[in-house]
């Protein structure tokens, strides 16, 4: 058994959302591989019923107006805060991320914070023309029913990124969480629904057939999806029949460029967490690091020192800030990429082999030096605790190499701020950070370019993305 048994609050909340005894699908603790609950296995028929209920509830929800919706959403945020520790423990077990560090408790704080931001961000009608003859205003109305399909890496926070703006603009939402992490998402929705009106927010737990039906359903007006580029393409095809609007946040392989003159010791901590937040299982994590040859060895050494000092283990331990890979499929990808890097001459600075002493799905922080473009660990998204570090001698070459792939979610440039800004303007990514990587703000739009998807989330742009514009002229 686990060293940390379920608390009464965890048991009570899980019992409200999981399948009855003997039914459903087993969900395992990512760290211990013990059964923590049984996810409901709902069908396409269940999904059809959920969408019908959401569609029926939507006009009344929209008619409540911004002020009433705002007040209810703020109460839902309070409910998340009141249950934050219980939700964080469920999340830690199911996803694997530790309670501490930029992990489970951090994620729950982000959930209530982003929900409050979506509730309170102003979006006023825009006067387009007012010349004495024509008065034209641009308003934003609810799109209808939003289908939200979420990932397993930040399951609660990304769900809120989809739910919050949608509810604020008067939409109802049907949420399909990842099959890997359904219980934590269903638990958060259960908590929010203590406050929200019936059928405004509905969670549905099912397999890929249910997800495919959600994307293609004729009564879904908007689809929000975070996940792989391959699945994003399927969603685009599925949505063609009903011309549903789309926001797609897809795969990335974010490049960082460390300029000559940067100070390795001063940037090392931010580089490390830019790459290894959530044990590297983050869409916009730093996944390729290009370092000028004049400071290459020092950057590698500084990162290695931090990796060796950063504790990894069961997320329910208060000491750990790095956890396991969430699932066997991702573990196998990470292991394959590291072995391939070794075969192609990569120098393993730290890690390099499964940490079986910690558990089945643990892989240590692995820094791969002296590797280059064209090797799989550089060209493919690792989505785990692996960072290839690539040496360069010419900044123009580094920019070209950073831009060579068909994805562009995020990127970063490290060094003198003025020089870094000039380089950042030439990096092909939806967001480019200066002397940091991956930090997000609820007022700052976020989205990718190239095969990393389209549409923006957060702030005013995010509210507009889950609504339809209407011009009132006269």
From TrEMBL:
Gene3D superfamilies linked to this entry: Aldehyde Dehydrogenase, Chain A, domain 1, Aldehyde Dehydrogenase, Chain A, domain 2
UniProt keyword annotations, A-Z: Oxidoreductase
InterPro entries linked: Ald_DH/histidinol_DH, Ald_DH_C, Ald_DH_CS_CYS, Ald_DH_CS_GLU, Ald_DH_N, Aldehyde_DH_dom, LUC3-like
Active site location: 249
GO MF assignments: oxidoreductase activity, acting on the aldehyde or oxo group of donors, NAD or NADP as acceptor
Coiled coil: none
Taxonomic superkingdom: Bacteria
The Aldehyde dehydrogenase domain, residue ranges: 25-467
Family: Belongs to the aldehyde dehydrogenase family.
Protein name: Aldehyde dehydrogenase family protein
Provenance organism: Microbacterium protaetiae
Native organism taxonomy: Bacteria, Bacillati, Actinomycetota, Actinomycetes, Micrococcales
């Amino acid at each position: 058994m686990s060293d940390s048994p379920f608390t009464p609050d965890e048991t009570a909340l899980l019992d409200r959302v999981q399948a009855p005894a003997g039914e459903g699908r087993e969900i395992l603790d990512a760290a211990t591989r013990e059964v923590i609950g049984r996810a409901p296995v709902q069908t396409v028929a269940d999904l059809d019923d959920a969408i019908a209920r959401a569609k029926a509830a939507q006009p009344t929800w929209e008619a409540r107006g911004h002020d009433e919706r705002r007040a209810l959403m703020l109460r839902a945020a309070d409910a998340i805060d009141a249950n934050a520790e219980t939700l964080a423990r469920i999340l830690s077990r199911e996803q694997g991320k530790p309670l501490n560090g930029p992990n489970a408790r951090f994620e729950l704080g982000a959930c209530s914070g982003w929900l409050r931001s979506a509730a309170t961000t102003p979006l006023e009608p825009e006067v387009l023309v007012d010349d004495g003859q024509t008065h034209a205003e641009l308003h934003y109305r609810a799109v209808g029913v939003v289908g939200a399909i979420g990932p397993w890496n930040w399951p609660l926070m990304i769900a809120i990124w989809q739910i919050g703006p949608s509810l604020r603009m008067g939409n109802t939402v049907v949420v399909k969480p990842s099959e890997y992490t359904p219980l934590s998402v269903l638990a958060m929705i259960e908590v929010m629904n203590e406050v929200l009106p019936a059928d405004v927010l509905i969670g549905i737990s099912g397999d890929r057939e249910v997800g495919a039906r959600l994307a293609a359903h004729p009564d879904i007006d908007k689809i929000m999806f975070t996940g792989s580029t391959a699945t994003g393409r399927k969603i685009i095809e599925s949505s063609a029949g009903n011309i549903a609007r789309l926001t797609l946040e897809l795969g990335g392989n974010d490049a960082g460029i460390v300029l000559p003159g940067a100070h390795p010791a001063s940037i090392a901590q931010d580089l490390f967490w830019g790459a290894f937040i959530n044990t590297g299982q983050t869409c916009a994590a730093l996944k390729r690091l290009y370092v000028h040859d004049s400071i290459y060895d020092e950057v590698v050494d500084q990162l290695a020192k931090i990796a060796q000092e950063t504790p990894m283990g069961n997320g329910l331990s208060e000491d750990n800030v790095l956890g396991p890979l969430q699932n066997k499929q991702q573990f196998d990808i990470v292991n394959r990429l590291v072995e391939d890097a070794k075969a192609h001459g990569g120098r393993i600075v730290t890690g390099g082999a499964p940490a079986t002493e910690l558990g089945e799905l643990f892989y240590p922080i692995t820094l791969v030096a002296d590797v280059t473009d064209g090797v799989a660990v550089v060209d493919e998204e690792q989505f785990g605790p692996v960072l290839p570090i690539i040496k360069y001698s010419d900044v123009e070459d580094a920019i070209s190499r950073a831009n060579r792939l068909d994805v562009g979610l995020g990127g970063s440039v490290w060094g003198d701020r003025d020089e870094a800004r000039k380089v950042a303007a030439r990096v092909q990514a939806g967001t480019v950070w200066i002397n940091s990587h991956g930090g997000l703000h609820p007022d700052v739009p976020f989205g990718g370019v190239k095969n990393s998807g389209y549409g923006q989330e957060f702030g005013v742009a995010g509210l507009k993305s889950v609504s339809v514009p209407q011009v009132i002229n006269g």
